Records
---
Amino acid sequence: MAEQDWKTNKRTFAAVSIPTLFWVIVFFLVPMAMVWLYSFGENRGLTEIAISGTLENYKRATEWLYLTIFGKSFAVAALVTLICLIVGFPVAMAITFASEKWRPWLLLGIMLPFWTNLLIRTYALMMLLGTQGYANKSLGALWEGASWLKTLVGLQPLPTWEPVQLLFNNFAVVFGLVYVHLPFMVLPLYAALDRLDRSLIEASLDLGAGHFRTIMRIVVPLAAPGIIAGVMITLIPALGAYLTPDLMGGTDSQMIANVIERQFKKANDWPFGAALSFLLIYAMFILIALQSMRRKVPEIH
Amino acid sequence: MPYTWLTLGIGYRKSKVKAKPDSWKVLFDSPEYAGRISWLSEAGDMFRLYGKYLGKSVNALTPADIATIEAMMIKQKPNVKNFHVDDGQDLLLKGDVDLVLEYNGDIAQIMAEDDDIDFIVPKEGSQLNSDNLCIPKGAPHPKNAHAFINYILDGEVDKKITETILYPTPNAAAKALMPDSYKNNPVIFPPADVLAKCEYAKFNPELQPLFEEAFTRVRAA
Amino acid sequence: MALFARTPVAPLEYSRTLWMRLWVGAVMIFLYAPLIVLMIFSFNDSKRNVVWRGFTTKYYEKALGNDELIEALLNSLTIAGLATIVSLALGSVAAVMLWRFRFPLKGAIDGTISLPIIVPEICLGVAFLMFFSMVSWPTDLVWPFNLAAITIAHITFCFPFVTMVVRSRLATFNREQEEAAKDLGASEWQVFRDVLIPHIKPALVAGALLSFTLSLDDFVITYFTSGPDTITFPVKVYSMVRFSVTPEVNAASTLLIILTVALTFVALKAQGVKAIAETH
């Protein structure tokens, strides 16, 4: 049955549209419009800001310095998304082809950490990765073991174990972002794989293609909408990540969200922060436009 | 009204340094402790302290000074492990770093737990700050605000605050109630000759965005 | 589930092959090990988080005796509860609007509703910071009205998720049921209440769970909108860390994790594992 024209049932339409539109306009579009206006303003004194229509903030925001930070944020987000895809795809496959009894529990297992507070998960990870943390201790134990094995076969033991730097560098930021964003990737992948026609895979296998070839040639193209949805849903929050680089990053790990936050909380330069925010939002728009140009936006759920 | 004041200095692990780090040089201009240093992530404080290291007043930095300092920071950056968000005392305590730029009270707190840790105000001097209680113009309940400030400034109340935060209190009545171990602690109350070299930092709305931008460049470099 | 299959593995039983199991197992360890270590260390009898010095529950006593922390937790739960209720109502209404009607500018409105999902948290936080300071939102209201600003911000980013989930559920609705109800004399409202609502109930449960956890989870947006009286749990934890991460933080976090798990199981009881998994 087709959709109803709003004119045929105005009362019901009003009942459902007025609250929605009111909320979206007052509590979303108006605040966003304020940021947009501020981005054309300048500081006049400590607390006064004049909307003067200046483009100075955008000029500053598109300087080489800030462009490189945007570029770096994008590179980090893309790397995180790629790792999530590589790690998450087999997991989504496993869930899809798991038995009826196990599937819901596997899904729940993936979702549960996602329901735990982001800040708490980040601290948990930091505890594990510190110089004296358990990740380093386990690696140290493995090293000792390898060294002992070497002496066993009569070779020189390995040099003594030096704790590796797992925290406060770009590796830590990527690791932390993968940790918090993995569920975002697995769920849409699973949704797409679940809809797949299994007879196609069986046919491919029957006709002699190997598992790997079947996956690359049959499963991946068929699940492409889900893969794209997963990529977008991981890439976008990763691009705007703030807490992870702030807490786990090293001296050169700042991402664009950190720069934006500092304009508001430290530098007291709201117009410039607003301009940076809008550049980030425009970047999101471009990503989404690119995606819908490739194909019609797939439903995430 | 100030209810506590503070100074910045170097918190360090005694067993891991060769000599007392009595100069900002070890933190700002030397590869001696590469990878074991943590800076504070406050752009303004960092630039002002660098200024102090160069023998300038913390409140008289010029854009040219900022450029010089920026270049020095970029040169030193590979030796620095991270910019901490005022949790440097934890990094020091956990052994993630051995030298950290921190506020005296934070280090005093962990010195009570680990006697391998010490704090020093470098010989070039440092900056002083105070945490203040203020009533903004046009505040809706100035009377309540005054009542609250009076409460905080009460000797017994401030004593309890001070016992927890271990920062120097400007409140003589509260200080009198504290044990000698607090009153005579050179970390909390640096000696007069050290304080003489420190300066009180002012917020400068002109320079603050410059500090931030320069620091952003340092981080991006 | 034995690691080695007793019956021969069929071609499509990917989840029964050894390397697949190892991979999933490794991912689960990756996801859960940090949380488990965090929970174990909440019982550690040392202020330093790295070395095990013996079992104690004193940090739980400390956390539970910390009035500000409890207040922050109550604030968080209140905000999450209110935000969930409003998001459910608003989200379903919006879903019905988009599902049922054809109207001018539909594409634009549809896009705008899902925009809060796309806009980075930091930008949304900044927008609310400006908005509430520009309209001089009153800050001296009594509890729980002082939480309104944060709640509003949370509703804005929660309700699009509800709309999304409810809409996909509505897509499977057979409109003939609605027609039949109307033919039998049901009013518009009765149809909504007795036919539509029961049909979308699993989506509502999933949406509620999603909103509640999103709200409870949010740090960035709240960090920009909270005031001195309206500290939420994540913001409080963030500020506690500035004074040192003691096992008290671990204890408080463990309590929150347990709360989340308990909530999930309540929802599962209400709806069954499968329904939740299906709507994710």
Note: Chain A has 13 helices and three strands.
---
Amino acid sequence: MTILDQPVRRSRKLSMTPMIDVVFLLLIFFMLINTFGTPQVLRFATPAGERQSVEKDFNLSPVFIRADNSIRIDGKTVPLDLLRTEMEKLKSQAAEVTLMIVVEPGAKNQALIHVIEAARSAGLKNIAMKKLEDAKAVLPSISDGDSE
Amino acid sequence: MIDFGPERPRREYEYMVPLINVVFLLITFFLITGAMKATDPVQVDLPVGTLDETKPAEAITIYVGPDGFVYIMDQVIEAQFAPFMLRSFFLKEGHRSVQVRADKNAQAETLIDLMEQMREIKIEEIIILTEPGR
């Protein structure tokens, strides 16, 4: 009797190990590829038209973001937790207001986002963001000393 | 002395079914909760924010890396050259809404320049993405 003639011996139970291997591979795949937590959104509607900003558009003290990311309003450095209160004070100064945020060279995005969010929370809807040099062109009253 | 009766015989192999059940539950969890997305062209740490407004239906994504380089689709450009690229790109694609993933450590001036350029080429809405904060 040759080997081929012998009946094939089958195991009584199906082996689970290959399935478990595949399932673990799937688990690792989904763990690695997935992203959790969707980012938040800040929406800006851009002003229509070609008109450039002029001085009379801005009836509030500008908010300066300095190179060290500190925030200055009316010559005072404002801590982050008081930013919204300061913005509310600014808003109460006039009925229809446009806030100018002046960014110095070296200031980071995070500081800009803090200021924008504080302004939005205080109800300031119209915001203009300018670099220091562009802000000087619009508001000649701004000098280098304003943000210092 | 309490008599617990005869000790039950141990199985020859560990019972795998509970383990497989748990692993399947984990897979189902990851399938349901996660969202797959394309790989970002640059590693960006989003700034931390607290406000969250409603998301727009469709918008093209621009990345601003920590080094100030701007990434549009598969192209990398310096921020100062972005206007030419943006103009040709958006005129061709016809997008009117753009979302910006800007690194929190990138220069704010770069973001302002970019937003100004987008306004000039008549992008109607700019969306800045932030990380959920406190």
Note: The helical segments of chain B are 17-33, 82-93, 108-120.
---
Amino acid sequence: MKMRLWLWCISFVFLCCCGIQNGFAYKIPPVEMELKGEGFIVSIPHEAGIENVAFNVNRNRPFKAFEQGEFSGRVSTETNNRWIVEIKRRLREDDTIYIWTDVQFNKNRFRSMSSPIMVSEVPSGVIAINEIVHDKKPVVITTETPPAIDPRNDICEPTLTIIRNRNACRGELIFEENFNGNELNATRWRYEVRMPLDIADAEFVLYDTNAEVTNGMLKIEPRIWGNDNPDADIRRGNLNLGVRCTAYQNSDIECRRQAFGRVVLPPILTARINTKHAFSFKYGRVEVRAKLPQGDWLFPLLLLEPLANLYGQQAYASGQMRIAFIRSNLNLQTSGGIEMGGRVLYGGAVLRPEASYRNTFMVNTTRDAHFGETFHIYSLTWDDQRLSFEVDGQKYGSIDGGFAQHEMGHNYAWTNGNHMAPLDQEFFITLGVAAGGHGDFSDDCLSKPWANTSPKAALNFWRDRGNWKSTWTNPSLMVDYVRVYAI
Amino acid sequence: MRNSILLLVFSLIFCVIHTFAGKTECPRIKLKRQWGGKPAKALTYQVRPIRYVIIHHTVSGECSDFLRCASILQNTQTYHMNDLDYNDIGFNFLIGNDGIVYEGTGWGVRGAHTYGYNMNGTGIAFIGNYSEKLPSRSALTAAKKLLACGVKEGELDRNYILLAGSQVSSTQSPGLILYNEIQDWDHWSLVP
């Protein structure tokens, strides 16, 4: 009797193991594409357990769902250890190919949407994730496959979230960056090399250094110009970022500057990175674990920025969202005695350039310690009604949409959008550190060395460095991870 | 001598068997794009091989030429996608009285024909109403060929179970006369 029970147990465990082995242990590898003759082939490698494979392929049209592609093919036999579908259609160099793959692995089906494949380089190198070398031989392009839908729960609940190029299910982790390795993952992040664009709200920095990636952590450290370039003279120098400049709106302002009189070169050198070429989304939940900078007149950039600037480029007409924002000063008060320094955390939207309106669309929470003392988890949930903000899992406020009707936010173009306009478009992620500027520190802050409307603002900030330099003891932004979930 | 005759006889038998085995060739299938169908709004691939085949009728007009069949198919697809909000035409295959098999969602892609049997079943509909009459002989032959082809291609389970829609859901489909006919088919089962 006891023996029988044992046998049952053993076979049960055995079955369980097998079940897991067979059913759940498969992840669709990156799809490879190869140009061949008058057409192209798509394939994935064979693996024991694969029964059949289907590919759906679109040219220049992202999939909105796991829908039928312009080309659709299914194979039930492997060839040379690969599952291959050949499509007889000549591609153009400027085509972008979208693929989703569906695999029967034993008795389960798995599917995943691939990242888009550029058939050729995009001119000016904006969105070229995969590059093809035009050779006589067919070239194999590898794409990065987003996480497959969890097969154990293959009911994909509809989501509000929209992602460039692919579909998601509610709750799905659609972006994850843990900063592993020794350098920034260039398929996800690009460095910005430019000066600030908006004249009415220009921070006093040059974005042109690299971040450090070590021990699973991103570190962005702002430096005083002279520290890196002892010869650079911000009062007489001439800066031309040349072809390295990543400006995409106004290269006259963003890429070149001749110091003269009150016009100085940016006194602070720092880094700013974004996912513009690789990842953008509309509606979702962003979570960032970070240690914010400490030091007078510094502030972290944990932003969502608009992909297309549909409502205009100037003066935040297309909006900006701040997942978290502090004025990193160790002590900062307004003349009215209101605490403004690093103990006050803000989250919200920036819809106007003026410093006097900077807090209009923001919520805040105050702590006893500076937010730069330790790591915190900052999150923004962005849906079609409002922005909601949390720190360490605690909600501290939300901002309702309707900005087109708001007296401080009115912009005629927004009335063409929905309730959240201008925050009803796709946004990408930006991380960085900035300093000074005309829009983030209001003029009634005590001991502020510059006036926001003064043409000498940056110069006066620089001249005051004897006072603020010593406070930059921990000026770096440290980011442990960034995650985005579909909602 | 005797041996070689035996060998000859065996090879003959082998040839005959081989030819007959090869007879399970697939019927002509008009693809969805050929009859003017729209792409599916979403595709759900099925786990192969498929265990059930469910027979239906469309309760529409009949057709015995391509143009008429295509027109019925297009209307059916529009009705299924727009009014019923299906992802595609509901059946995996449809068969006209012209003896042509028309592709619906096709092999291995889930249709919307029989509640509870969409994920593991293939739905085949005869175009027309078969409560009081049979589909054409060529239509019935095409259906049988399609089923044999499905087994040969590994799309259908070797021991697949053939059912009428009326056996597993509250419908008259595929009509009583056609239901009587398929009861004589090899894989029909009284019990679902």
Note: The two ends of chain A are 52 Å apart (CA to CA).
